[in-house]
Specification:
single chain, 131 residues, alpha+beta, six-stranded antiparallel β-sheet, 3 helices, globular
Length: 131
C-alpha cells in the first residue's frame, strides 16, 4: 500500500496517548494492506483515509462519543450505495440519494473479520465505480 514519506511519524502523532487505538489501527491496516495492495493511505488531521483512485474508507477516533460507545474504539467509515442493516453499524446517514455513509466501531482486533473486510471491498468497488 502506498504511504507518504512521513506516514510513520504522522501515525504516531495521530494516535498520541492512545496506544490501544493504535494497536487496533495497526491490525486493521495489516488486513487492508493485504486486501488492497494497490491502494494508498493518507494520515490527515481528523482521519486516516484510504484511496483507490477515490476515497473508499476512513478511520478516525470518535469526536462526539455517544454515551453507549466504548471508551476505547476506532471508527471505520465506509460509503456504499445502500444502507447496511447490521447491529455493527453505529451510525448510518444518506448524505446524497443512493450514497450511504456508515460508521462502524472497532473495539477488538477480532472484529476485523470477513464481514468488515467485505464491506470495505464493497466500499472500494463503489468508490471506483463513481464518476
Amino acid at each position: 500500500m502506498e504511504r507518504s514519506e512521513h506516514y510513520e511519524s504522522d501515525l504516531l502523532f495521530f494516535f498520541d496517548g492512545k496506544p490501544l487505538e493504535l494497536g487496533l489501527y495497526e491490525a486493521l491496516f495489516a488486513r487492508m494492506e493485504a486486501a488492497f495492495p494497490q491502494a494508498s493511505v493518507k494520515v490527515q488531521k481528523s482521519q486516516i483515509s484510504f484511496y483507490d483512485r477515490r476515497l473508499f474508507s476512513a478511520t478516525s477516533l470518535p469526536v462526539r462519543r455517544k454515551k453507549s460507545w466504548p471508551e476505547h474504539c476506532l471508527v471505520v467509515t465506509v460509503g456504499l450505495n445502500q444502507r447496511l442493516e447490521s447491529p455493527r453499524v453505529a451510525v448510518a446517514v444518506e448524505p446524497y440519494p443512493g450514497r450511504w455513509t456508515h460508521h462502524i466501531l472497532l473495539t477488538t482486533a477480532e472484529e476485523i473479520d470477513g464481514e468488515l473486510m467485505g464491506w470495505l471491498e464493497e466500499a472500494r468497488a463503489f468508490a471506483v465505480s463513481k464518476r
